Amino acid sequence: MLFSLLIAPAAAEAALPPSNPGTPPMSDSPWSLLPAASANAEALDTLYIFFWILCGIAFVGMIGVQAYFMWKYKKPAEGHAKTSPLTHNGKLEFIWSAIPTFFFVILFAWGEIEFMKQATPPPDAMDVRVTGQKWSWTIEYPEVKGCSLTNDLYVPVGVPMRLTMTSMDVIHSFYLPAFRLKKDVVPGRYTVLWFEATKPGLYPLMCTEYCGDEHSSMVGRVHVVPQEEYSAVLAKACELKQGDAEPLEEFGARVVTRGGCASCHTTDGTVKTGPSFKGLFGKTETLSDGSTVTVDENYIRESILEPNAKIVSGFSPQMPSFAGRFDDKQIAALIAYIKAQK
Ligand code: CUA
Question: Residue 135 Cα, ligand 1 centroid: separation in angstroms?
Fold first, then answer.
């Protein structure tokens, strides 16, 4: 049992889809605090520490008084001590009610102010669109035409960003621990999150609403980069073109990564939400209506652009369309990649 607990983290890592490098660790050691990489995180941490100090003072005060009374009113060595008659002490009761009330009001007001700040994105915030689906995050940047990334959020330091989020299927929850932010992502409605990053670095992005089999692999990365590098870094991340010396199949592997395909399709024959790519090309599949189809270039292309047109028997129509997200060259590369998975 202990052994399996010890090896569990490594096993979980190995089980991650190969095209998703996973998420960076929350912090360097399990004992250290989470990194704080946004203005909101720093403000909330200050409030949280204030809360802990208050609790600490109250705890020490109460336990201290208890200990003192235990000592002071302990049973005397001989005979019974007479209990003094109990009356009330108005002044004392007022003090022990007023002091905590004063601090509760401070906590409420402080929390409310931070909450209001967090609930109201500044009007000049930069827009990003986030779509959750089983089991990846699609992140689109309106400022770069046609740029849609999977599981990678790029953020400049010191610029407010507004994420408008929705879901294609079930409720997910977008969680940025280093920014102390979390919000449900709900089908049929938009939810909004905003933040201003303060520290460059690589931070985790997670789904924190159980959304099905692969919920735990619905993870990503937040890349916080200096403002002056942001445009170049984002343009590079968005670019999806075959390199001069790059074989088509390797380019196809990059397209698979970009599309987040591996959250549903394996390359080792394991069946997940969709058929495995292993040995797929050339296979004859039986469709849900009983007819058969040979997996060729046309079928793969159709399945990428119109995934629900011909569903293989035993699978459910869950795949989003990639029409408008992948161009012809990218689709050709994807086909070459699938062909190579023998
Ligand atoms: Cu999406 Cu859990």
Answer: 6
Tokens of 203: 């931070």
Type of residue at 155: V
Query: Among candidates 172, 341, 137, 127, which has minimal Cα distance to 259?
Result: 137
Which protein residue's CA is at the shortest distance from atom 1 of ligand 1? 172
pLDDT digits (tens, 9 = 90+) for 107-139: 999 999 999 999 999 999 999 999 998 888 999
pLDDT digits (tens, 9 = 90+) for 126-174: 999 999 988 889 999 887 777 888 888 999 999 999 999 999 989 999 9
Residue 176, beta-bridge partner list: 181
| Ligand 1 atom closest to Cα of residue 216 | 2
CA atoms within 13 A on the CB side of 103: 14
Around Cβ 329, how many Cβ atoms within 10 Å? 14
Atom from ligand 1 closest to the CA of residue 209 = 2
Residue pair 196/160 in contact (Cβ under 8 Å)? The answer is yes
